[in-house]
Structures are given as C-alpha cells and as structure tokens.
Amino acid sequence: MNESMDFLLWTRGTAFDVSVAIFIVGMLIRLFEIVSLGRGRDLAAPRGTEFLPGIRTILSRTLPYGGTFKRQPLTVIAGYLFHIGLLVSLLLFIPHIELFRETFGFGWPGLPNPIVDAAAVLGITGLLAALWNRLTNPVMKMLSDSEDYLVWILTFLPLLTGYLAYHRMINPYPLAMGLHILSIELLLVLFPFTKLMHTFTLFLARWYNGAMSGRRGVES
Amino acid sequence: MTGATLERGLNAFKEQVDAPVAAFFSSCVNCGMCAEACLFYTETGDPKYTPIRKLEPLRRVWEQEYTVLGKLKKMLGLARPVTDELLQEWQELLYDSCTLCGRCAMVCPVGNDISYMVRKAREGMVASGNSPADVRSAAERAVRIGSPMGLKYKALAAQIKRIETESGIKIPLDVEGADYMPLLSSMEIINFPEYIEALARIFRQAKVSWTLCSEAFEATNTGIQIGSSDIARELVQRIVDGAEKLRVKCVIAPECGHAYTSIRWEGPNLIGRPFPFKVLHILELLDELRASGRIKTENLSNERMTFHDPCSIVRKGGVIDSPRELMAMVSTNFVEMQDHGKWNWCCGGGGGVSANTNAEALRLKVFKRKKDQIEQTGATKLITACANCRLVIEEGLEEYHVELPLEGLTELVAQHLVEDK
Ligand code: SF4
Ligand code: SF4
Question: Does B34 sit in the ligand 1 pocket, CB within 6 Å?
C-alpha cells in the first residue's frame, strides 16, 4: 500500500510538473516552428475575403462531406465516437473539473458519473474500431507508420486506466490512480512531438485552407 | 532545367515549405479520407494514389528541416532521406496521378490543401530532374517558340484571316488603348477556332472595345503544369508586357482551366507585383455583359444539356455562378451533374496530365468517373468551358464508346445571340 501511495504521490508531484512543462514548452516550440515560416503576401487581386471564410472552414470541417461518409462510414463513425468519448471523459467528469478548480480557481458544471462512464465506453469502443480500421482498411494501412500506432496507444491508455480506476478494477486504488496519471503524463510529454499536435494545428490548417479559397471566392 | 541535381531539388523543396505546408503536415492524422475524394484512387482502388501520400518527399524535407524532432533524427541518422530513387518513384504520383484538381482539399477533416502542396512539390521535382520528359519538352517549346504546341503567330494570323473572310467580322489586332485583350490557348487556335469567331460576334454585338495581341496571345502556361516558377514567370511576363504595351484595361483568360490559374492567381505572384490591369475569365465577362443587358439570346434550346465544371475555373478559380447564368441563357433544359460546382469531379486531364504520355492509360481509366457522372444526367449534349477538358473528355468518351456531342459555352452563347445585322 505504501509503495503504491509513494508512486501516486510521485506521479502527482515531480512527474506531473515535469510533463506539464515539457508539454507547454514543446507546444510553443512547435507552434512557433509553423507560424514563423510565414506565408508570402498574395499579390493577385482578391475576389473574396480571407478572414471569415477561414473561420467558416474551421467550423465546417467538423462535419464530414456526405460523399466521404458514404464511402467510408467506419472512419467517420469511429472518429466521432472516440473524439466525443475522449472529450466528454476529459472535460465533463466531475473529479477532473474539481482538479482543475483546485489548480486554477474556476471550473464548470460536469455530467453525472454514469453518463461519463458510458461516454468512456463509447470512446474505448471508438478507439478499438479506429485501430481495427487502421489495420484493415487498405488506404489507412498503407499510410500508417509506427507513429500512428504510438499515438493510438497514447490516447487509449488514459481512457483505459481511467475506466479501470473508476470501476476499482486495479488494486490498490492509489496504484490505479497513479497509473492513470502516469498515462496522461506520457501523453503530455509526447504530445508536442507527434501528430497529437493536430488537436491544435488543425485550426491553423483549416484556417489557411478556408482563407486561401475564400480569397478566390470559393467556400471550402 | 539544365543542371538539375538532387541537391537543387532538395533546396527547391525546402524553399517551398511555408506556414500552411507546415500546418498541413503537422495536422495530417493519416485517416485516408482524402483518397475517397480523388478519382485516381476511387477509379483504381489502389491506395498508392492516396492524395497525401503523393507528398511523401516534401513531407520528409519538411520534417527533417523544419521540426525539432526531425532535425534530431536526421543528425542521428535515423531519418529516411529523400533520394533520387524516391523521387523517380514519386514522379508517377506527383505528375501522372494528380491533376491539381483540388477536390481532396475540400474533404480533409483537418483542412489540408493537398493540391497546394502538390503544386509546390513539383518545383522540387523539376529542380531535381524528375519531371516527365514530354511535359518538359512542351515547356521548352513554350519558352523557345511561344507556345507549348510549337505554334507561332503565323498560325493564328492564318486562322484570323480565315475567320474574317468567312464571317465578315473584323478581328482587331494590336489596337492600343482597347478595353479588353483576350488570350487564347493553342488548342483553341488549332482545334476550336470557333471560339475566336464566337468572341468576335459577341463583342461586336455588345460593342466591346477589344484587341488581340500578336506578341501575347498564348494563355496556356506549361511552367505551371510542370511546376517550374522560372518558366511560368517568363510566360506570364510576355502577357504582362503585351498588355502593358497596348495599355488594355483588362486581360481575358480563355476557356482553359490552368491558363486562368496562371494569369489570374499565380501571375502577379510570379512576377512579384500586382498587375496594372484586371484579369477576368471569359465566362465572367460574358456574365457581366448578360447582367448589364448588353447581350441577349433567343431560340433557347430544349435539348437536355449538362455542364462540366473545369476544376481550375470553378473549384480553384471561384467562377461558379457565371456558367450557370450563361447556361440559362441558352437552354431551357439544363441539368446539373450530381456532384457539380465546387464538388465536381475532374476530367482526369488537368494539371499537365493530358500532355503526359506516361499517364495516358491511367487517365483513360479514371475518366470512368466523369463518364458515369455524365451518363447519370441523361443529357444528350455536354457543355464545358475549357479546351483541354473538352479534348480529354472527347477522347475519354470515345474510349468508352459513348456518343455525345461537346461544345464550348462561349460558342453556344454566340449561337443563340441576338444580333443586329
Ligand atoms: S484526409 Fe487529411 S488528415 Fe486524412 S490522410 Fe488525407 S491529408 Fe491526412
Ligand atoms: S488534387 Fe485532385 S487529382 Fe490531385 S490528389 Fe487531390 S483529388 Fe487527386
């Protein structure tokens, strides 16, 4: 019991500080790397504007194009399932919000535990389906490299360990919590250096796409 | 193009990386959805044609030159280098199987504009000597002779003379201070001279002040297709010089997709300054003439017609509504294809593919998408607004034994034009 308690304290102390620091610094470096490359000024007379079309594309790409859905329903459904499951578990689980409140002094309302629990199950299912898809769909199989599988594991572990801890399926409890926190720290440390970065860079990508098309008078 | 080496190629790739490229590569999650938008994948089922995969050489250069981890990997010798063999293998992917149609850029969930990057990656392919030989020689002809098909002004002069005698309409040449200066594509001069006559009739009726320019009439730009900004710049500069010499107010891009991209969107960036004249696509000008009541049509056809959207003019050019307005001027029975406008499917011959003999078999194969789309509409006539699309579609339909007449929209408007004789 004591050993697992020490482990938990370590994950909540030093390990946490170090991984958050790596996450923040790494992210800033990566974003700087991208934005500092800049973009040449476009000298062609515009037909439309950039800003609003850019914002519009940031929002509109959240929904799939109907033609894609018809051709690859599994990719779309699994994608939605695990993203929603992840976000609900991360942001609307009351203990997570309380932790946030303790650290930053403010929070927001969460969802009842059974609902978050269900979301976590859907998230796990979605991730398993996405993995199956990656291993069997010929296009994804060809595109994927070791990083895609690493990223999958990094995303899967926090959900899995959180689920196991919540249902007291690992004992003693401090060990379960420690493993859960450690899995998140692993995620944080590798986040800036893998395609997990898409969480943030997709806003840039969508904006550039929407803005460049918008300038030509096309909604993308 | 002389002295192309791997090193030059790598430098060219490096120079092409900008913030959008870095954001795109950072965001790709290898979900494969772009494949579903690309006719080269949907019609072959071969995953190697997945759009984002076509960019592997550029992606490696970005990773190894512009990311912390990539630089580290390169230092430790863990990075996969870009080699001549890789580039040779990728020639098929970056040229034969991409028409720069931009459809993939519409569906990627993280917002990657893949065709923007293919255009850029081709710069590295040219600099490293990995562009297809016949597109390269077309580009050389364009620089040396003035046209990719080796066509000189004499050929145009002969067509002008013929049209003037047959139609009795004078075609203004090198008139200083005219408002509009239309450009032509070689294909129009050789295969579809009806276009020139149509212009002459419409402009006479609308009392448009216009002129052709004997020094700058060719609109096609092989530099854009092959991916060489140096060549593209030289060809654009000729047009700018011609237009500035004649002091025209507006240059008119012809019924040709990539010509519009080159002069309208890339042109000013290539020569490094904004143009002192406007650039319009011919369909935009016709639509303006329609809206201001300067041209009218009669005896509308009730034949079932459909319209093929040239990617560069519509999805990548923003001329989306004008063709619809103009179709309504000529037909009472116009039907849209299922995916149309900014969602259209490419004919398979854009972006230099139709000039590339290596790509011929593949191009005819993937044309099936367009063929099916056309057949679905039940139309008995196909209209388009790009001489290249037109030739590619004609050839494709022949390959699939489909009989269907094709016409250019400008000619069709001229056929229905109300003329004061
Ligand atoms: S659709 Fe976008 S994110 Fe998905 S594989 Fe293609 S480029 Fe990458
Ligand atoms: S631009 Fe068109 S042809 Fe090229 S990869 Fe994208 S969808 Fe395919």
Answer: yes
